[in-house]
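lol ok so funny story. i was supposed to be doing the assay writeup but got distracted and ended up predicting the structure for this chain instead. priorities right. anyway since i did it might as well share w the group, maybe its usefull for someone
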Amino acid sequence: MTTPMSYRRLGSSGLQVSVLSFGSWVTFGTQLDSGLARDCLAAAREGGVNFFDNAESYAGGDSERLMGRAIADLGWDRRSYVISTKFYWGIDGGMVNMSNTLNRKYLSQAIDGSLQRLGLDFVDLVFCHRPDADTPIEETVWAMSDMVAAGKAHYWGTSEWSAAQIREAWDVAERHHLHKPVVEQPQYHLLERHKVEEDYALLYDDMGLGLTTWSPLGSGLLSGKYVDGIPEGSRATLPGYEWMRAAVTDPSRNDVVRRLMPISERLGCTMSQLAIAWCAANPRVSTVITGASRVEQVTENLGALDALVQLTPEILAEIRALLP
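and the output, tada:
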């Protein structure tokens, strides 16, 4: 990597996050032990990453514990990094009021559990991990706003909500002078574009919505490693990842990857770097959340910064022409 990290404001907020960030989904607690987690975090931070994404439900809470211990071992200044968590599914085995919900009781207790596991006094961002059709949005907005007012989080947002749900939450907060949602965390990659590019189109200017997008590689599909089947030892072979196998072996999607490969070769980057850079090329994206199970993958992901500066309007149009 020769291109330095750049930083973007999180929507209309004053918070600046690195254009590439580091997330712990499907790695911390399942593929990474504490030593590897610490090494990956250190490599990301050395590359300029300042935003680290987590969630209560990742590995049943172990992901937060691992990240918290690793950051403590690394001795990072709390002022120097941004950290998030997310709530909805819960980790209490389906207990009534404590799982698959965004009610006030759950949210007010979930944040305390996450802070304890992370070993922190506050998180910078907290997300409603999915919408909850059984809890009034007004109840959720009040609970999230109170969480911010109590100093347990600095900003709050949503993940995989519809534009209509986000707008309703924003309107409730506006009407009652509460802390508004400032960020959405949707899936966004070359083969998953609708929400970011169409559904949310009116929210960016109307509300100043920021985006922390996830899965830039489409669960690894866009890395190109699945074009000839599932390699031995890849994540898709692990127990519990059966859901991934059908997605990464889809023939039509892998055909798109094959057509994109000559562009990555021409730019001198890997397919992973091209896919990550393409997401970051969207100015509406505040940060692209990347994941890694090895330090070498962290380094490769950071190399997307070099690919990003090569994505001219002409090359972006060429890529677009190859997409379904």
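The longest helix spans residues 251-267. The CA atoms of residues 188 and 210 lie 13 Å apart.
back to the writeup now i swear
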